[in-house]
Every structure is written in C-alpha cells, then in structure tokens.
Amino acid sequence: MKIGVFDSGIGGITVLNHLRVQFPGYRFLYFGDTANVPYGSKSVAQIQELVDSAARRIKKKKLDALVIACNTASSLALEKVKEIMAPVPVLGVVEAGVQAILNSPESQILILGTRATVESHVYARLLKSHLPSSHIYEQACPLLVPMIEEGWLNHPVLDDTIKEYVKPFQGILTEEKKGVALLACTHYPWVRESFEKALPGWKVIDSAEAVSRQLRGLWSHQPVSYDQASQVTWFFSDPTVVASFMEIKEKISRF
Ligand code: DGL
C-alpha cells in the first residue's frame, strides 16, 4: 500500500508521524510544496492553482490513497484534488478536525489556522450545525508557518508571537465555560507546547488521530501487517529550502 501525504511544507509531517505508527507495514510518500510555502497567506485563486498543479504531479506516483495534510488546501481545494486523483481516494483534514472537536466538545471552541483557512470559515460553518450552542472563535496566526519552516520550534520569538495571537482568549474560561482549541494548521503541532503554555485551561487538540481513523476505514476489509517498519520516500518541490533541522534532508528528491 502506498499512501501519499501532502502539505505546503513540513507541517504534514506531524500527520505523517501519526500515520506511520498506525500503519506500520505501509509505504508513505511525503510531498512538501516548499517552493510555494506558505499557502495560507496567499489568495484563494493562487492557493487553488498551486494545489491543482501539485496534485497533477502527485498523481504520477500511483498512490493507493492521498491525505491532504494541509488545512489550507483541504479548506479551499479538496474537491478539485479528488477530481484530479480519481479513482484514488483523497482525505482532507478539515472533516477530521471537526470530528476531533465533536469527540471532545466544549462550550468555547477556538480554531487556530492560517489566514486562508480562517477566512474560509469552513470550520465555523461545519461546527455550527453540530454544536449550535457553542461559541466558536477563529484566529489566524500567519507568522507561525514561516517560523516553523525556519526551524524555530523552541524560540522565544515564536512563544511571544503565539501569546500575542491568543491574548484575546487567555482568561475567558470559567468553571462553566470550558474550552477546546483546534490546531487547524498541520504546522502547529510542532509547537503544541507553546500553544498549551499560552492557553492555560484550554484542551489543545489536532486532527491527526481522526484522519488516521478515516484512512483505516478505507481498508477495513484488508489485513494489516505489523511486522515491518513503515518506509517514507520524501519529495519536495524545492529541496533546498527544507528546514535544516529535519533529519530527512539528505534523502529528499524533487517532485
Ligand atoms: N500546514 C498547512 C495548513 O495546515 C499550510 C500552512 C501554509 O502553507 O500556510 O494549513
């Protein structure tokens, strides 16, 4: 089985890491469109064009399934990628993120994502119908993806930037008003602890587990081998700009 995992950069690796544990005998192909990261601060038309062209290149790799491990692309271009990849099944992370919140709903819900994801209001729209009495806040954090791509995972500037973005939500919780914050950008789990520190009292979650469950559902009829380590082949549209902290940097190719 060959599973593709696609993101604008290194964010999708947070999803890939989870999938490798859940699908130990499978082969993974990771695609990072590092020549064009960040997607989230670009226009809708430009994001759709970039995702379209990445999907056409990914299609050539003959996958058994593709996970769009990017909230921005999943919010704005999921249907188009499904069309390009057909008949290969394609999963986005938005539905999984919504599922993750529905699995632990609270009266206060905070969606943290790129500007494009937040401005699409896709999460608020989907959640409103399931949780009409919850209060849904959406916060764009556009400076974070460039810092994370730069490898600033434990950097005071990153901590301060996160604190600044979440300031309006620090201290709004009470005994009755509990909160769940969704990391609705796959880059953000790299710096989960900084979010947890900046959002005391909030449950900080992501979509990796829910998307892995959805993927498992695709092949529930097939036996899964647990006796092999998973293998990953790495592809980046610009290998030279992959953050230097990634241990994969010696083994990557261009897609
Ligand atoms: N990791 C991506 C996401 O989940 C994209 C970030 C970006 O390229 O701006 O939205």
Residues in β-strands, percent: 15-25%
Radius of gyration over C-alpha positions, nearest whole angstrom: 18 Å
Our count of domains comes out at: 2
CATH topology of the largest domain: Rossmann fold
> Structural class, from helix and strand content?
alpha/beta
Helical run tally? 10
What is the strand tally? Answer: 10
* Low-confidence runs: none
State the CATH class of the largest domain: Alpha Beta
For the sheet with most strands, the description reads: 6 strands, parallel
Bound molecules: D-glutamic acid
Q: Helical percent range?
A: 25-40%
C-alpha geometry: globular
What is the CATH architecture term of the largest domain? Answer: 3-Layer(aba) Sandwich
What is the H/E order?
Answer: EHEHEHEHEHHEHHEHEHEE
Task: List the SSEs and their pairings.
Blueprint: E1 2-7, H1 13-22, E2 27-32, H2 44-59, E3 65-68, H3 71-85, E4 90-91, H4 94-103, E5 108-113, H5 115-120, H6 122-130, E6 135-140, H7 144-149, H8 156-166, E7 179-183, H9 192-198, E8 203-205, H10 208-218, E9 231-236, E10 253-254
Parallel strand pairs: 1-2, 1-3, 2-9, 3-4, 5-6, 5-7, 7-8, 9-10
Structural summary, described in words:
With 255 residues, the protein is of the alpha/beta class. It folds into 2 domains: 2-92 and 209-252, Rossmann fold (3-Layer(aba) Sandwich), CATH 3.40.50; 95-206, Rossmann fold (3-Layer(aba) Sandwich). It is built from 10 helices and 10 strands. The protein has helices at residues 13-22, 44-59, 71-85, 94-103, 115-120, 122-130, 144-149, 156-166, 192-198, 208-218, and strands at 2-7, 27-32, 65-68, 90-91, 108-113, 135-140, 179-183, 203-205, 231-236, 253-254. The strands form 2 sheets. A 6-stranded parallel sheet has the order 4-3-1-2-9-10. A 4-stranded parallel sheet has the order 6-5-7-8, with helices on both faces. The chain is globular and about 50 Å long. The model has no long low-confidence stretch (mean pLDDT 93). Residues 7-9, 11, 37-40, 70-72, 114, 117, 145, 185-187 line the site of D-glutamic acid.
